[in-house]
Write a structure and sequence with these properties.
The chain has two domains: 71 residues, no CATH class; 106 residues, Vaccinia Virus protein VP39 (Rossmann fold). The radius of gyration is 18 Å and the shape is globular. The strands form two sheets. A five-stranded parallel beta sheet has the order 3-2-1-4-5. The protein starts with 14 loop residues before the first helix and ends with a strand. It is an alpha/beta fold and 223 residues long. It has nine helices and eight strands. Strand 1, helix 6 and strand 2 form a beta-alpha-beta unit.
Length: 223
């Protein structure tokens, strides 16, 4: 199928920003990098313990930005089955279920605490949603979702939190549950986003890959 790209090109750096990135070449030690990978789930769980459901704003722009959610229907009131991979506490999931009543959603997250927040949400209903904990790099989605059953997968600010060497494992996992010819909707951090420029020296893990003070990580994508 066709790969469609919408959105913005990379920012043009100011001379000062370009110089800052040029100088920032020292990588976090291999020992610390291995520790961050080993403790990735714990760090995201602590993130949600600290921030509860209050950190990210609800994403009411999903259906506006991703016209494919409507375009992929063969008829107007067709019921869609979606998978929100990396659902967090439901900031994208619940607005989507409210806006489109003909959706059944599977949703999963790396953090057990985030999954519990989703289940406790007043809008959560097992008739319209199934949420479960999952490490997308190693837990088989087929344990919770039938093969070739999903019309749309959303990957929204999720892949950036995963080590670049393991991103292909996530996509292979998703592929098993996606219906042939259907789509993945992807949005994430782009190269030279302001978030990338805010990292201080000593935060760099690799090319376009950084660690925050709380141990969570972020990759910045080229087109």
């Amino acid at each position: 199928g066709a790969f469609q790209k919408k959105g913005h090109s990379a920012r043009v750096l100011s001379p000062e920003e370009a110089e800052k990135l040029r100088k920032d070449q020292v990588l976090v030690s291999e020992f610390k990098q291995l520790k961050l990978e080993k403790e990735a789930q714990k760090n995201w769980d602590l993130f949600y313990k600290r921030n509860s459901i209050n950190f990210f704003k609800d994403r009411h722009w999903t259906t506006r930005e991703f016209q494919e959610l409507k375009a992929c229907r063969e008829f107007a009131d067709q019921k869609l089955t979606i998978l929100e991979a990396g659902c967090g506490v439901g900031n994208c999931l619940f607005p989507l279920l409210e806006e489109d009543l003909n959706i059944f959603a599977y949703a999963c997250d790396f953090s057990p605490r985030a999954v519990e927040y989703v289940k406790k949400n007043a809008l959560y209903s097992t008739e319209r949603c199934k949420v479960f904990q999952c490490d997308l790099t190693k837990d088989d989605l087929l344990d919770n979702i039938p093969a070739d059953s999903v019309d749309v997968v959303t990957l929204i600010f999720v892949l950036s939190a995963i080590h670049p060497d393991k991103m292909h494992l996530v996509l292979r996992n998703i592929y098993k549950v996606l219906k042939p010819g259907k789509c993945v909707l992807f949005r994430d951090y782009g190269l030279y986003d302001h978030a990338m420029l805010r990292f201080k020296s000593g935060s760099k893990l690799g090319e376009n890959f950084y660690v925050r003070q709380d141990g969570t990580r972020s990759y910045f994508f080229t087109e």
